[in-house]
Design a protein that fits this description.
By secondary structure, the protein is mainly α. The protein is built from 3 helices and no strands. The longest helix has 11 residues. It has a domain of 37 residues.
Length: 74
Amino acid sequence: MRSSANVTQQFMCDLLGISLSYYRKMEKGERAVTSEMEEKIRHSFFKKRESSTVFVGTNDYTNIRFQTLNVREV
């Protein structure tokens, strides 16, 4: 899941608050993934957005072409 989301191991460690070596061992299967850690990982990928921030965009330039040169038609 992590690699398909283009997320680095270091990013996951920072997100989960664990060391890189511990995380690598979990990925390799050398260390068991606790249910608490599994929940943290699931929550980090499927977190609901609870923000009221609205995206506002601006357009600096718009080019519109008409198929006629007749100003009255436009």
